[in-house]
Amino acid sequence: MTGSILIPCHRCGRQVQSSQVRDGRCLDCRVEVALEELRAEHARLWRKRERYRAKGANAESVGRQIAKTEDRMADRIRELVPNQEEAVEHLRKALEQARGARYDIRRS
Ligand SMILES: [Zn+2]
Description:
- The protein is mainly alpha-helical.
- It has three helices and two strands.
- It has one domain (28-107).
- The chain has helices at 27-55, 60-80, 84-107; strands spanning 6-8, 15-17.
- Strand 1 and strand 2 (15-17) form a beta hairpin.
């Protein structure tokens, strides 16, 4: 039996199985880091669409860009998370966070 050795993730400090760690980071952190750029892009496009809609402009092309960004997020997660169920869960969370960001913007 290969014993499961727990080591701390350098980014979040959580104890994780050593087999889950690459470059000192746990899988969750690797996914987060990999998505940072796309998340920022998603937020930018989302705000752009809100602005277009507020002006009554046609936001369809921005909507397509948002969908494309979400596809790229899904691709990146699939590259990092081999288990399909886990990948779906990661994507669900990432999209929830990305789409939920607008509520923070509105509330403030
Ligand atoms: Zn971590």
